[in-house]
Each structure stands twice: as C-alpha cells, then as structure tokens.
Amino acid sequence: MNQSEVDKLFLRNKTNGCSVKGISEKTLMKIMNVLLGDSSKEWSSKEISNILNTSTVTVKKYLDHLMELGRVENSIYYGSVGRPEYKYKIIL
Description:
alpha+beta; Arc Repressor Mutant, subunit A; three-stranded antiparallel β-sheet; about 45% helix; globular
C-alpha cells in the first residue's frame, strides 16, 4: 500500500490539514503506518508509543480518534492483576 492509498483510506473526508482540534496529520500518519506495518496484529497503545517514542496518552488519543472514524477496532484483555489492557487493530 502506498501513501496515496493510505491517505484515501484514512483521510477521505479531509480537505487541507486535519480538521479535528488537537490531531496532527503527521502524528496520525505515523500511528497509521505502525498499524499498517502488521495489519493482522492487535497493538497496545504502549507498544505503539515505544515504537514512535511518544507518550501512551498521545497514542491513545489518536487511536480513539481512529475508532471514531471506524478505522480501528479494539478488544479488552484482563490480566491476573492491575488494569485491563486495550488492544487495537486496523480495519482494512
């Protein structure tokens, strides 16, 4: 998949720049590229933040945005202790 196809898939309603407040097109594209790098994998926000060297809060905000757009789905996993972990998978 080339960049033009990615843009059409994820940003089809976009005109000039990202129109959602607080969402950077550059950061959004970096997160989408990680998700597309292994589209069969379910990713945690921590895994993506480690790859991109950014905060998990930032990644979570972008993943929530992609979920609102219907581009990403999530699943919840419960460990033996602590908080549950959400995993995200790209919808192609």
